[in-house]
Write a structure and sequence with these properties.
With 244 residues, this protein is mainly α. Helix content is 55%, strand content 6%. The strands form two sheets. It has a two-stranded antiparallel ribbon with strand order 1-2. Helix 4 runs antiparallel to helix 10 and helix 8 packs across helix 9. It starts with 14 loop residues before the first helix and ends in a 7-residue tail after the last helix. 39% of the residues are buried.
Length: 244
């Protein structure tokens, strides 16, 4: 996790802009060039600069980073409906306000309203009197928008809690990010990346088994001991130094 970094005082996960950068840059790994060529379609130099900075803060956009290499790989093999989920999972590890909002989403029943006020209240409990009322409202609206972009909230006005369809590719990416950040065993299953998917443990384990059949990971569960490793995938992606 990157400490004390957030874009949600000003922006969301910016999935539309991220998609343009990824789809333009993925062929030659030229993500900085994509930004410089203004594939994000901003009308001013200031807009290009700010959006580029926020995107890099959330997603790195640097193939020298193992997490981004993994993101690029899953982006390339996932369907369009999965990509917003990949984006919010990645952003969870880069943005502490987004990470801290996970319980608001997980604790809201499907079909119930996710109010901006509930997010504001949760932020205030975590950071009492840290933010002004206007800033707190803006952050809560941005956070709600980020979850909406990923499919956990729907509706232009009502903000109804929904649960997107999550497949083995998305779960594997969440498990992998936890692994690359040093977690092992059951700690992977309890990680923020996995919690953000709002799935029960049985479903996560079932999807991990499915991923194992496709050689995306190695999963074992015996005697209440969980082992999740990624040797073959990491070798394929040329990511070294994590096999233990």
């Amino acid at each position: 996790m990157k400490p004390d970094k957030t874009v949600h005082t000003s922006r969301t996960i910016m999935f539309a802009e991220l998609s343009k950068v990824m789809n333009h840059g993925i062929e030659n790994d030229n993500y900085s060039d994509s930004l410089q060529q203004n594939v994000i379609s901003k009308t001013t130099r200031s807009g290009i600069t700010k959006t580029s900075r926020y995107l890099k803060s959330l997603y790195d956009l640097d193939v020298s980073h193992p997490q981004f290499l993994a993101f690029k790989h899953f982006w390339s093999i996932s369907g369009e409906k999965d990509k917003p989920l990949l984006a919010i999972i990645y952003a969870i590890g880069s943005d502490y306000l987004l990470k801290n909002s996970i319980p608001v989403i997980n604790n809201t029943e499907i079909g119930k309203k996710v109010t901006v006020e509930s997010i504001e209240s949760y932020l205030e409990n975590l950071y009492p009197q840290k933010y002004s009322a206007n800033t707190k409202r803006s952050m809560a609206q941005n956070i709600a928008s980020s979850w909406k972009q990923a499919g956990f909230i729907t509706g232009k006005v009502k903000n109804i809690r929904t649960q997107p369809e999550i497949n083995y590719l998305v779960v594997t990416f969440a498990l992998l990010l936890a692994y690359l950040n040093g977690l092992r065993g059951d700690f992977i299953l309890k990680s923020d990346w996995v919690r953000a998917l709002s799935l029960d443990e049985r479903t996560v384990r079932s999807l991990a088994i499915e991923a194992g059949k496709r050689d995306l990971l190695q999963y074992q569960f015996a005697g209440n001991v969980t082992s999740i490793t990624f040797k073959n995938l990491l070798n394929k992606l040329n990511i070294n130094g994590f096999e233990n």
